[in-house]
Amino acid sequence: MASTAEPFRDPLADRALRWSATLLVAMSWISAGLFGAYILAFFGGMAVGGTPGRWNQSLPRLHEAATPGATLAIGAHFVTGGILLLLGPIQLIGGVRRRWPAVHRWCGRLYVGAAALAGFGGLGFILAKGTIGGPAMSLGFGLYGASMMACAWLAFANARARRFEVHRAWAIRLFALAIGSWLYRMEYGFWFLTMGKWGHTNDFRGGFDLVMDVFFYLPNLAVAEMFIRARRGMGGALRWTASGTLLATSALLALATWYAVFHLWLPSALDGVAAATG
């Protein structure tokens, strides 16, 4: 007769996974908060100062007077993206879910709505004017937006159906996607720090640019899947592997954040503040 005993659980592996996940969430929140401040200062400052055309310093063709619909769509993408970056880590904290379930539910509704709007905004921009990187970038970014909307719906639908374990899995996948826009810039910063601009061109059609059309979100989903399966208790080896992956990700994130803040975000943020107050 088959054994019904629970598989052996390594308490040390459990603890390592929990703390490595906590460290990554904390590092993500710090970095995302700094990125959100940059978005507010630069894009908001340029808009208030009447110079939204300078958005193109961040990514060419973001703002063009001939396509106001695309500008509105990408503006919605930025605003809702900021909400996703700041709320996402809160939604993943177990203590908040257990102690203040109403807060978790209402923040979750806002989070899902923001994810849907971010996806619609990004897709609207692509449909209105395409992307600077051409068909490859448009396809990669379009798949990203559609995936985010799908995960948002599945997270919401499973929560409503009270399938909470399935809901949490889709919520983790959604968070992994939601941080993609921020990671896109982080990964470029890390690449420039280590490799210069090798593989990058001004029209975003170089070898590295083509990889980045999907790299800013597909590896996130792979890490999310590893974490989801490790949480389900699929053996100590997988938990140790997941812990090591999360720790390595935290270290790379810390280095990329340092570079992005002092070499990319801070100078642009100060320009935005000067435009708004000057």
Would you kindly provide a brief summary of this structure?
The protein has one domain (about 15-270). It has ten helices and no strands. Helices cover about 80% and strands about 0% of the residues.
Description of the molecule:
The protein has about 280 residues and is mainly α. It has one domain (about 15-270). The protein has helices at about 10-50, 70-90, 95-100, 100-130, 135-160, 165-180, 180-195, 205-215, 220-230, 235-275.
Features:
10 helices; mainly alpha; single chain; 278 residues
| Estimated radius of gyration | 20 Å
Order of helices and strands: HHHHHHHHHH
Mean pLDDT equals 80
Poorly predicted tracts of residues:
1-7
Number of strands: 0
Number of domains: 1
Biggest sheet record:
none
**Number of DSSP helices?**
10
- How much β-strand is present in the residues? under 5%
**Which percent range fits the helix content?**
over 70%
Indicate the topology.
Layout: H1 11-48, H2 68-92, H3 94-99, H4 101-129, H5 135-160, H6 164-178, H7 180-195, H8 207-215, H9 218-231, H10 236-277
Helix pairs in contact: 1-2, 1-10, 2-4, 2-6, 4-5, 5-6, 5-8, 6-9, 7-10, 9-10
